[in-house]
Design a protein that fits this description.
This protein is of the alpha/beta class. It is about 40% helix and about 20% strand. The chain has 9 helices and 12 strands. The strands form 3 sheets. The chain has a 5-stranded parallel beta sheet, with helices on both faces. A 4-stranded antiparallel beta sheet has the order 6-7-8-9, covered by helices on one side. Strand 4 (about 75-80), helix 4 and strand 5 form a beta-alpha-beta unit. Helix 4 (about 85-95) crosses helix 9. The longest helix is centred in the C-terminal third of the chain and has 15 residues, at about 195-205. The radius of gyration is 18 Å and the shape is globular. It starts with a strand and ends in a 5-residue tail after the last strand. The relative contact order is 0.11. It comes from Streptomyces kebangsaanensis. This is Sensory transduction protein RegX3. InterPro entries: CheY-like_superfamily, OmpR/PhoB-type_DNA-bd, Sig_transdc_resp-reg_receiver, WalR-like, WH-like_DNA-bd_sf.
Length: about 230
Amino acid sequence: MRLLLVEDDNHVAAALSAVLARHGFDVTHARSGEEALRALVPEGAGFGVVLLDLGLPDQDGYEVCGKIRKRTSIPVIMVTARSDVRSRIHGLNLGADDYVVKPYDTGELLARIHAVSRRTAHEDAVGAGGNALRLGSVHIELPTRQVSVDGIVVQLTRKEFDLLALLAQRPGVVFRREQIISEVWRTSWEGTGRTLEVHVASLRSKLRRPALIETVRGVGYRLVAPAA
């Protein structure tokens, strides 16, 4: 897989590139946001994943993520020292597929790269249903992967849509955290749990229906169907 590493620290980039190369990745290193955007022309330039550091010298990493998402659907993993939930949600809202906090374990990073790179097969499976789901004012079009609330389209990331579609196909049923991670992230790696929490929080915020997704303590989540 070709991987674009966006990192302004040459020492960090060199060490990480060496590790990724040993695991079979063809790494291209971009030292700035502008260099990264040029590398993605035309139409993603064949990259499978973008590792995006937020502390870039020429522009904010969040801004770069937004520009990448407007140009291509390549999975983006943000890599940053900003660990607060608000920063994570902001990154996901801009279209990031995952968020890794420094310092991180190399095994963790590799697991996340493999998880997001498998998204296409899952998206095709989700979209193959050929129908729509309606939950009160929330309307979910599976084939087009479009969600609207009160007739207004809501922009969701790929994983947010996959998560919502999974829960919405069986309203009232409790999905275990492990099951959600397996079906949406296509991995059994336990460290993805924190990412799941952030995606649930982001969905509640975007849909403006915080009670729609209920946390079942110690088990997982379920979608609460609105009363008729």
